[in-house]
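REVIEWER CHECKLIST
Item 1: Sequence provided? yes
Item 2: Single chain? yes
Item 3: Sequence as submitted:
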Amino acid sequence: MAHSMKVLRLFGIDIQLHYSWWFIFLLLTWSLATAYFPEFYKDASTTTYWLMGLSAAFLLFLSVLLHELSHALVARAKNIKVESITLFFFGGVAGITKEDMKPSSEFLMAIAGPLFSLLLGVIFFLIHTFNGNGIVSAITLYLYQLNFILAAFNLVPGYPLDGGRAFRAILYAYYKDLRKATKIASTVGKIFAAFLIIMGVIGIFSNQGGGLWFILIGGFLYFIAGVSYQQVLVRQILSKIKVSKLMNKKFKTLSPSMKLEAFIKSNPEEETYIVQGKGFKGLLNLESLQSLPITLKEVVTLEQISRPFSQIKTLSPKETAYTAFRKIALQQLSAIPVVEKGKVVGIVTSKAIQNQLVLGMSFVK
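Item 4: Structure as written out by the authors:
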């Protein structure tokens, strides 16, 4: 995912942190150290409060990671491939490659996270109750409360929350229509989001704390609910189209030894070209030429400025347009080559995919 960095790999899954995570982590550590713990645990030193804040923030992050991993491991058990998990501070997004799944599989995946958060809440509650150390008790008090809140919040039957995904799975099993199930679940999600926004506004005007957070969370959920429904439409439209029907078979091939200056003088009309010959295969995009200094354009060859196929996840004619859509987006390409038995047989552009989406959306009621 864009704006994220990989930090580790667990169970064959890349764990990534969204850049916003660092800001929230520091903000939470600061608020815990300067406000929360001084209120509930008196007479400690400033250093102790900061260590408590740092420890609690890290353990909360670990709780969220375990919450998301539980989703991923249940998916693995159901033979659903999970490539990555991108963590925000209070949640995450799993990179699931399967284009569709059984309602029962999605239901089990959805409830796994809240159930694990509930389990963590019980564990932290027991430590808080039976531990005699005041510092440990103060930290675990915060953690068991947050994990219980995380579990309860995620069980709300509004998409895209976990409860909403479970609700969608039930609707999908009943209606046998993923689009309809998603539309109903996302509508419930929007209603819940609107409720949070209203509560936030009331909180602000009645001088109660947390009003702004309610508005921000509600606004975010409302936006994501709409986007999630659009994503299902995109997946359904593109999953019905094979790459073999979408690809351009009349693509232009250039020699790797061709000088860039000669290529520019030929007045190229296409946005993307296949560069191949003498054992080299690569992809050349005109946009990448704009950043090259004028002096280099006289000496470099197309091979030197093309992206080798070894660095690209290419397509097969049998794959779907949705797979092409994902590969183009994840690799930040404007086009992607189609390869069959080691031979380039076509090219799929983002513009061709966009045209199919516009056409497909026009038939959606």
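Item 5: Key structural point noted by reviewer: The first helix runs from residue 20 to 40.
Item 6: Recommendation: ____
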